[in-house]
Amino acid sequence: MTNSSSLLNRDRNYLWHPYSSIDSDQAIFPVKSAHGVRITLTDGRVLIDGMSSWWSAIHGYNHPVMNQALTDQLQNMSHIMFGGLTHQPAVDLAEQLVKVTPESLKTVFFVDSGSVAVEVAIKMAIQYWHAKKQPEKQKMLTIRHGYHGDTFGAMSVSDPVNGMHSLFSDTLIEQFFAEAPCCPFDQPCSESDFSSLRTQLEKNHPKIAAVILEPVVQGAGGMRFYSPDYLIQVRKLCNQYDVLLILDEIATGFGRTGKLFACEHAEIEPDILCLGKALTGGYMTLAATLTTHNIAQTISNGEPGLFMHGPTFMANPLACSAGLASLKLLLNSPWKNRINLIEQQLSIGLKQCNSYPQVKDVRILGAIGVVELHRPVNMSLIQPQFVEAGVWVRPFNNLVYLMPPYIIDKKDLNTLTSAVAAIISNIKD
Asked: What is the pTM of this model?
């Protein structure tokens, strides 16, 4: 029995993988190591990574600067509780995040995952209005096709159908949903695009604490792109109806859309911002929820005089060191030029997919390339085909997409797009 076979057997005996059945017949591929944009399997096969480990490993794998940052931090401490204590990695990272995010955001609350960052944002909004003697403002308003995480608060603001959580619909808090905009990224919105949101706010604003949405790109709910013009209107409507605006940039933050943060496409500022995924360059689990001085002070001066949240691993020093190193790497690199080149090559490499009858749409924005099919893919068939082609691409539902590390070169990206085009061409409509 090979090492790979032994590892797979043990995996099947003990492990449950994300969004899978314990009896799943889908192939699992054991990894030996990862360097740069390449993943080496235990059987010796080498794959070019098109996923950035669910969009987080923007600098690739085993980066010497990242490795050194964690090695150095280990010499001091790997973890320390954040209740009543602080440390330089957390302070330094918070300071840098405040510098690079929208001007009005001044306070950082560290958490350990993107879903929890959304939970914290929801709790902040509710507690803010409670402190302002408006406890009836407890509901969230969001748009359909969104996805905000797998915990209960985050599930409640994800699309009831596309958000993958319909099973729990009778258990979740009932929130308000508006229709998602249909205006493409490069076009202005019409009145019909935001009329649903306006109607919800007109009717329910006394109950609504905040609007929450993913700016410009809706991720796992459908990989939809929409016009920045919609965000401009949302910001105006939130101001008009005295409702907070939460932007979930867990997937879009740190350059993925061509701007450092996707809200910059619309030149708007949220009241609360959620960050995660690429925050640590894919090295450690860490997320952050940022807010304004006004919201932080209002909560702190209200009843019970403190914010009601406190994760055990909040501001983990190793994770904060990774985040600081990742942010410095990004800002000191020609990241804008890299994203622009990736966008151009994704457009060229995936263009031919538009001619396939099984393809509904091809869309590109920044370092995101999406091929939407008319029907869901058969993962048991398509995943091994990508591996045989020497690439790691992980489709979901009817979406085959690429979000490669920013350091990928033209040749490797061409290999990725060629594999996607070739494999999709063989899918029967």
From this structure: 0.97
